[in-house]
Amino acid sequence: MAVDMDDFWVFGYGSLMWNPGFEFQEKIPARAFGYRRSLCVHSWVHRGTQEKPGLVLGLDHGGSCRGMAFRVDRSLKDEVVAYLRERELVTHVYKERTMPVLLGDGRRALALTYVIDRAHVQYAGALSAETAAAIVADAVGKSGANPDYVLNTLSHLKGMGIRDHWLEEVASLLPQAAVQR
Predict the structure, then answer these.
(1) Count of domains in the chain?
(2) Do residues 135 and 33 lie in contact, with contact meaning Cβ atoms separated by under 8 Å?
(3) 68 Cβ partners below 8 Å, 6+ apart?
(4) What is the 3-state secondary structure (H, E, C) of the chain?
(5) How far apart, in whole angstroms, are the C-alpha atoms of residue 163 and residue 169?
(6) How many other CB atoms are found less than 10 A from the CB of residue 86?
(7) What range does the domain containing 37 cover?
(8) Is residue 64 part of a domain?
(9) Which residues does 30 contact at the CB level (< 8 Å), separation at least 6?
(10) Contacts 24+ apart (CB under 8 A), 85-90
């Protein structure tokens, strides 16, 4: 099935999936290929500080990622892009990209999304679940406690029928990591 290339789509893989913050015409499960959801961003603002960074999700190279695609009215494109840039590019740890996604009904679309900049100082790289849990355990930023972010993310993913085994492992280690700090 083809998608009208004049449509404007946004792909979300983290909190954007359940809290887009913009008006949309259609919301549908989607998959991006060549990237995976990863707790690979040292958060200096929302879930940590520069002195004590937390970890938040990024779209990193490798595998594929199940998320949500939002079709936005073309007349709102500039407004939505401006909003997303303000939300996602706070420290410029993400790069804005347009990439193909496979929609849940078999259609294909080009969607705006944000992928991790591996050259950025906030890129955490591939961490063991134990290391990630130790970082997350007591980090707090302007949007709240880092463990709450991880647990809330998992709860929403579960509600959408999306499993993230590595993130589940990190969450299972959080009480242990908090005790060891």
Answers:
(1) 1
(2) no
(3) 11, 12, 16, 17, 27, 28, 29, 30, 160
(4) CCCCCCCEEEEECCHHHCCCCCCCCEEEEEEEEEEEEEEEEEECCCCCCCCCCEEEEEEEEEEEEEEEEEEECHHHHHHHHHHHHHHHCCCCCEEEEEEEEEECCCCEEEEEEEEECCCCCCECCCCCHHHHHHHHCCCEECCEEHHHHHHHHHHHHHHCCCCCHHHHHHHHHHHHHHHHC
(5) 11
(6) 10
(7) 8-180
(8) yes
(9) 11, 66, 67, 68, 69, 101, 102, 103, 104, 109, 111
(10) 87/21, 88/114, 89/114, 90/45, 90/46
Q: What is the mean pLDDT of residues 127-142?
A: 95
Tell me the one-letter amino acid at 160.
M
The answer, yes or no, to whether residue 181 has pLDDT greater than 50, is no
| CATH number of the CATH domain containing 70 | 3.10.490.10
Which two tokens mark 82? 């401006």
Decide if 68 contacts 17 (C-beta within 8 A). yes
Share the mean pLDDT of the chain: 92
Structure confidence at residue 179 as a pLDDT band (50, 70, 90): very low
**Residue type for 171, please?**
A
Residue 54, token pair as written in the block? 């937390």
Residue located via tokens 């955490």: 124
Paired tokens of 91: 């420290």
Q: Can you read off the two tokens belonging to residue 114?
A: 């944000």
